[in-house]
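Let us work through a complete example step by step.
Step 1: write down the sequence.
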Amino acid sequence: MILELNEQQNMIRNMVREFAEKEVKPKAAELDEKEEYPHEAIKRMAELGILGAIIPQEYEGAGLDHVTYSVIIEEISRACASTGVVTSVHNSLTAWPIIKYGTEEQKKKYLPILARGEKIGAFGGTEANAGSDLGAMQTTAELKGDKYIINGSKTFITSGPKAGIIIVFAVTNKEAGPKGISAFIVENDFKGYGIGGIFHKLGINASLQSELVFENMEVPKENLLGKEGEGFKIALSTLDGGRIGIAAQAVGIAQAALDESITYSMQRQQFGKPISKFQAIQWMIAEMATRIEAARFLVRYAAYQEDAGNRISKEAAMAKLFAAETATWCADRAIQVFGGYGYIKEYPVERLFRDARITGIYEGTSEVMKMVIAGSLLR
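Step 2: predict the structure and record it as tokens.
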């Protein structure tokens, strides 16, 4: 594995970084404060091909490899974690399962729409009593004629209020346990589809998470993704890739915390000199930088393995576990570097601290990541 980015990857990284610095970062604090969806950034990312990053070119996507994709998510999240997770869910949790498991008709119908950003993607797996244990979901789907009738609800759905294409999981065979779960491609204008409560959160406030409610929702038979009973497998494999996206988001948050700490420490004067001259500050910054580099390499290694077509459950879990803990630790240290100023909203590290915390929870808690890693080693 070559750890250095190639010429094309560097070019894309620089392009995305410039876009994020100029168009995403300046609005991040305001969008967070207002809990306002990043509509303008989403529109621009569609124009730049970011929303179709991993979608094959034959379906109007950019057809990029997953290493490049991880770099994109890192750079967007470095500027705004909310925009980063919207981008990750759109690509990893919505487009990817259609690419992997969809029929040719499904790919032709939905992937260009996602690549163009005409509709934003979401992933409908979590329920009130089925978070880490997706096999406990209670949403049901019953085939009646040429349609599935879906009843139930989902919760904590990223982009829920804005999503137009949602991968929804429901039980088609109650007696089969996890093997009775199936996956469906759902559109937000299907009869019986509804948006429930919108959550007010600690962080990533511009990404908008909500409940989705299905009351006799009618889904065309041809929108079954994969075969009946394959939903659990589809969900787990999709989340493996999604965890690379969240790990990349965490690295971006951590890098932003380091960037802000370096800049502030060189400007802030105490005892007649910049605080960057004090060993206590230097050690915090040195350890932040070291942890970030380690997390970044774990992310790129997992992405490299995905590009190679290998199973990535362990690698993705390791990347997400370490990157999430790195983001939270670095954001905490950044507040310490800023002192009292780090605790107030006028300075960005307060928002980074709030945004970082979710990375150890969604798309698999850190505890679940440890279970996945241990399970792969203790077979």
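Step 3: interpret the result. The mean pLDDT is 97.
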